[in-house]
């Protein structure tokens, strides 16, 4: 078992699941191509090209614009508040799921299948409202998760000032710092008259005049 895991990189159960998934995919492909083979191939290639050439640049540019807008608002001080790592994902995930549902079910959401009611005996007018309800539920659940993340972030911060990093722990094995010596107590004030003021220093004596010069003898 250890040698198999070292060669394959995972357990035999993982290999079994991968083989089963490939078998199911091959069966679905064979059944799908039994009808209009050319139409299925054209649809598959067209969907891949449409995604890579249109949808991928579109939602990539939209994501970059949203991130730049959020950074600009925070830099200007309009969006001051706690920052959650990966906060943009709380907007990406519900938007991605809602757009994916729209892409898969857009013929029914936009009422492009007039034969739906005739074939299924079900009304075709409720798909748009259901999609809007699912989209609103996704964004509401994402907002609740964001509020929970902000609450956890506030508790983890522990009331530290914003922008101040947490104190680094001491290195392992380092002895604890010795406690500082207590300050000496101040001397109590003594009762009695105040001490006399110090006497001023004596004034300096004036300097003696210089001796008169003597006249030379003839």
What does this structure look like?
With 218 residues, the chain is mostly helical. Among the domains are: 34 residues; 41 residues; 62 residues. 57% of the residues lie in helices and 0% in strands. It has six helices and no strands. It is elongated and about 145 Å long. It starts with a helix and ends in a 61-residue tail after the last helix. The mean pLDDT is 76. Keywords: Membrane, Transmembrane, Transmembrane helix.
SSE topology sketch:
Elements: H1 2-8, H2 12-32, H3 37-75, H4 89-109, H5 116-120, H6 127-157
Helix pairs in contact: 4-6
Biased composition (Pro residues): 163-218
Transmembrane segments: 38-62, 83-108, 128-151
Region (Disordered): 158-218
The number of distinct helices, counting runs of at least 4 residues, comes to: 6
The low-pLDDT segments are: none
Mean pLDDT: 76
The ordered H/E elements are: HHHHHH
Name the overall outline. Answer: elongated
Share of helical residues = 55-70%
Transmembrane segments: 38-62, 83-108, 128-151
Keywords: Membrane, Transmembrane, Transmembrane helix
Region (Disordered): 158-218
Biased composition (Pro residues): 163-218
Observed structural traits:
elongated; 57% helix; transmembrane; 0% strand; 218 residues; transmembrane helix; mainly alpha
Q: Outline of this structure?
A:
The protein is mostly helical. It has helices at residues 2-8, 12-32, 37-75, 89-109, 116-120, 127-157.
């Amino acid at each position: 078992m250890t040698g198999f895991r070292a060669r394959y990189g995972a357990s035999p159960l993982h290999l079994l699941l991968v083989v089963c998934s490939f078998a199911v995919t091959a069966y679905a492909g064979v059944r799908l191509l039994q009808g209009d083979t050319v139409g299925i191939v054209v649809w598959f290639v067209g969907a891949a090209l449409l995604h890579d050439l249109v949808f991928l640049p579109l939602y990539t540019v939209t994501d970059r614009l949203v991130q730049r807008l959020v950074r600009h608002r925070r830099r200007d001080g309009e969006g001051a508040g706690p920052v959650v790592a990966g906060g943009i994902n709380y907007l990406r995930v519900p938007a991605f799921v809602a757009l994916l549902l729209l892409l898969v079910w857009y013929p029914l959401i936009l009422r492009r299948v007039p034969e739906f009611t005739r074939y299924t005996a079900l009304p075709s007018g409720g798909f748009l409202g259901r999609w809007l309800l699912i989209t609103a539920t996704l964004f509401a659940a994402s907002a609740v998760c964001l509020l929970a993340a902000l609450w956890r972030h506030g508790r983890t911060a522990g009331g530290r000032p914003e922008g101040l990093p947490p104190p680094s722990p001491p290195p392992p094995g380092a002895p604890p710092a010795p406690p500082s010596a207590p300050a000496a107590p101040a001397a109590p004030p003594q009762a009695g008259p105040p001490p006399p003021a110090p006497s001023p220093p004596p004034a300096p004596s004036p300097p003696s005049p210089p001796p008169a010069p003597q006249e030379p003898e003839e």
